[in-house]
Amino acid sequence: MGRFPTGVTVVTARDGEGVPVGLTVSAFASVSLDPPLVLVCIDHASHSHDRVLSTGAFAVNVLSAAQGVLARRFATDPAEGRFDGAAWSVGQGGAPVLEGASAWLVCTVEAAHEAGDHTIVVGRVLEGGVGTEEALAYYRGAFTTVAGP
After folding, report:
1. pLDDT in the model for residue 143
2. Going from the N-terminus, what domains does the chain have, and what CATH number goes with each?
3. Mean pLDDT for the chain?
4. Whole-model pTM above 0.90?
């Protein structure tokens, strides 16, 4: 799977107490244009798994080339402190949207399907936006960039 280049996203939500939670996710895809649906796959062992699913709303932040440090921070333990120093705003449903992202989508949980050691979370897109930065990509164990035309 390391030979398949992927985008790098951070999936974010706010738990029942309003505390922001998030994790780095490379398994992200568009599912449908009408209605607008996307999917993310979240490892059952992730500290953020249950907290993201219980909120009912989440954001997919497509990281920019300048956000490799955030990608690593949100991918490693401890989960506490992941938002330290990270600027973010609140999207619909309360989901944190990271500033500087190449693109972002705010979604509500449409469905969740167990698949091995992950949950496939299908989200209905409520809103989204794009930044001006090139996207961060992951290929063969390293970060790289995706340059547009």
Report:
1. 84
2. 6-26+47-105+125-146 (2.30.110.10)
3. 91
4. yes
